[in-house]
Amino acid sequence: MVFCPVTNVPLSAIGLNQQIYQRLKLSLGLNLRRQIFIAVCDDLNLRDRLAAALQAEIRQLEMNQFGGQSYPRLVSLQLSLDDPNPLMQIAQWLTQSPPPCIQGQQLPMPAFQIVGVEHLTRQPLAVQRLFFTHLQAIERNLPLLDFSLLIWMTQPWFHAVSHSAPEFWRCRTGIFEFAGDPTPLTVTSPERFEAQLSRFSTATTPANGTSAPPQDDRLQDEQGNPWMLLEDDLEQLYEPLENLPTAPNPHLEETQLDDPLPAQEEELAQDLVSQDSVSQDSVRDDSPADRSIAPLQIQLPSGLAEQPQFKLLLEQIERLHQQQASPLVLAEAYRTLGNAFRDRIEQGEATPQNLVMAIQVYEQTLLLLSETSPICIDVLNDLGNLYWMLSRALPSSAEALSCLQQGIQSYQQALQRIDPAHKAQTYPMVQNNLGAAYADLARHQEPVENLERSIQSYQQALRYRKPDTDPLRYASTQNNLGTTYWNLAQYKEPVANLKQAIVSYSEALRYYNPEQEPINYAMIQNNLGTAYWNVAQHERPQNWLKLAVAAYKSALQYRTMDAAPSAYAATQNNLGTAYWHIANQTDDPAEKVDCLQQAIVAYEAALQAAADLQQRQPNVPLILNFDRFATHNNLGIAHYQIATESLNTLDASAQSTHLQAALNHHVQAEQGWQGRDNLRQTALNCIIQTIRATYSQLGVSGQNIALSGVPGHLLPEILPKL
User: Fold this and answer.
1) Which of 8, 429, 456, 604 could be stapled to 193 by a disulfide with Cβ–Cβ 3.0 to 4.6 Å?
2) What angle do CA 428, 432, 435 make, to 5 degrees?
């Protein structure tokens, strides 16, 4: 009898991360003092959903309620990029919302989770160093902390913490690493394209035929009036952390961090105020006929009301309404305010309140613009991005669905208005955004239809996004296209869609340099291995499984024990399962034994990595991206097969060694699966089968030796079945 290993491939986000999430929720829900947790997740979409789920479930299940009053048990805070100090932000929150006293008893402090660390990558090195300095302070203030703290990080920041903030690293209580394969790159996040300079600037083409660079950073309308700075192209919500110093750089000045309003922002706001004299003649003939659109009632969120930039912008808008300025001038003023909100959001202040306010301002802008205005495309794309971000910030599935639908509608309207002459620059970016939004929508409704729409959008983007002009974006879109095909394969035409995923992953790998992008390169190799493994379940298993092995080995060149121990262990586990499947597909006895031995080596490497992690953190619960007890059981199966299927090549001593190893691993699996009846029964069946094989091959003495290795409490359950 052959037992199929308890596989961890394919790795689904739900199955792989569910146990880790439950442990994290339990750890936070206990609300113990002085607990410092780190949650690691590169997939920002998954991170946002997990953080929102924690917020909703802990609030719902464990909120303290006394005398009709309630107080949260978990508070989410977006890391400030001006002063990335988690303890200070927590102190400010507690000052505004201290625990109330009920009947003379003060309620306990809530736990706090901090998100947005990845945005520091786009900040100056001085700000990054400041963040590590603040982390060090957490260790010094640990005796004073009356709450639990969870900090969400991406892998680059997680790996930087151990050597850049060693005191904080030593005081951590637990690490929770989340992963999902295939994993979209973060460029799935909607992009924002820059306005087309050729429409507004006076840049000329020199006689030699080369394009001159833009001569001015400022956008101008047809009458030559300068307005807001052009939007920068948003490449990613975060970038890989590179060359982060471990010690302060004496050559960098840090005084700029204390300035709440950089000089250039203040100058920009002053420039805007000076535009009172814009003439009514600047209105185009196709401007809206209704010039009496009511002013938008704007109540600035707390923290922005006193910012000089926003105060000046609001005063300017009010003055323009009083002067009955033209719709075009009002539209530009509202758009400037919307851009200011958007910039704050991109800097890390992506609160639902800020997102909603930015959406309202941009929608007011659209009311004032002519439908033929080229500015509408920019505004619609920004509006789609904001709706997309808001959908991820809302805990309610119904509200998130509504936002996604509105975001998709904005992207579609932008696509309809793109001038064919500028299609190569703007069209692929909006299509890429639309593909990401449809992929998110598939999680809420009509998965097949929306995944197919996502594929169509990515394919449209790739018609204009070429590897010779934009290789990294091209590769990122190919990877995301591959992941969408992989997801579609779970619903229909698995072989055809998995093969399309393989094509896209392979194409993406051509444009990632593993020395420069090791994490992304290894991730895509892992995606590729997973796709190969899936196809092997449908056809030509030997060929596809060998390709899966090669892909996993390529990933392991960069997913090393030192660089990414948890990911290294999970990939070794996947490699072991791929080898096991090859062993059970071949008719060559020598190849079968060799593959089983390779599976044993990989499984043992996965378990050794887990043991090393446990040794490094003896007082911290071990959190892995795979079930190590399943690995124990799989390892036992491989030993069992070598012992029972290689009788002609093994002597009695070797058979006994493999059978004893099999029994030991099955016993460890049974002990680890206590309380999980189905899995425990699987391990128990393996124990019984191994003891039977020991008796068959080694007689009564061999069986007695085997029984001596079984815990006594299991014997009454095992002996009647032998």
Assistant:
1) 429
2) 135
> Count of alpha carbons within 13 Å of 136, Cβ hemisphere only?
12
Task: Note whether 385 and 404 are within 8 A (CB).
Answer: no
List the structure tokens of 510: 């051509």
* Percent of the chain scoring above 70 in pLDDT: 78
pLDDT at residue 180, rounded to an integer: 43
Question: Which of 607, 523, 604 shows the shortest CA–CA distance to 564?
Answer: 523
The average confidence (pLDDT) of the chain is 77
| Residue 29 to residue 6: CA distance in whole angstroms | 30
Asked if residue 607 belongs to a domain, the reply is no
pLDDT band at residue 126 using 50, 70 and 90 as cut-offs:
confident
Last residue of a domain, one of 136, 157, 177: 177
DSSP helix/strand/coil, 646: coil
Q: What is the DSSP string of 273-301?
A: HGGGG--GGGS-TTS-S---PPPP---PP
Tokens representing 432 are 């890429």
Of 97-111, 364-378, 583-597, the poorest mean pLDDT is in 97-111
**Is residue 537 in a domain?**
no
CA dist 421 and 50 (Å) reads 42
> pTM of whole model > 0.70?
no
Domain containing residue 36: CATH number: 3.40.50.300
Q: Identify the pLDDT of residue 119.
A: 85
Neighbour tally for 616: CB within 10 Å: 10
Preceding peptide of 182 cis, ω within 30°: yes
Domain that holds residue 162: 13-64+71-94+107-177
- In order, the DSSP letters of 37-97 are EEEE-S-HHHHHHHHHHHHHHHHHHH-EEETTEEE-SEEEEEPPSSS--HHHHHHHHHHHS
Edge-to-edge strands of the sheet including 148-153? 74-78, 111-115, 148-153, 35-40, 174-177
Residue 144 lies inside a defined structural domain of this protein: yes
58 contacts 195 by C-beta, under 8 angstroms:
no
Last residue of a domain, one of 177, 210, 231: 177
pLDDT digits (tens, 9 = 90+) for 48-84: 878 888 887 776 544 444 444 577 888 999 999 888 9
Exposed, middle or buried by CB within 10 Å (0-12, 13-18, 19+), for 288? Answer: middle
Helix residue ranges, H only, 274-422: 308-322, 327-346, 352-368, 375-393, 397-417
If one counts every other C-beta atom within 10 angstroms of the C-beta of residue 16, the result is 21
End-to-end CA distance of the chain: 15
Statement: residue 116 has pLDDT above 80:
yes
Contact between 491 and 527 under an 8 Å Cβ cutoff? The reply is: no
* 12-22 pLDDT tens trace: 333 346 667 88
Is residue 270 pLDDT above 80, yes or no? no
Amino acid at 75: V
Query: How many separate domains does the chain show?
Result: 2
Q: Which residues pair with 229 in a beta bridge?
A: 218
CA dist., res. 182 & res. 259, Å (int)? 42
Residues 6+ apart with CB under 8 A from 216: 201, 226
What is the total residue count of the chain? 722
The answer to the question of residue 455 being in a domain is: no
Rg (the chain; Cα; Å): 30
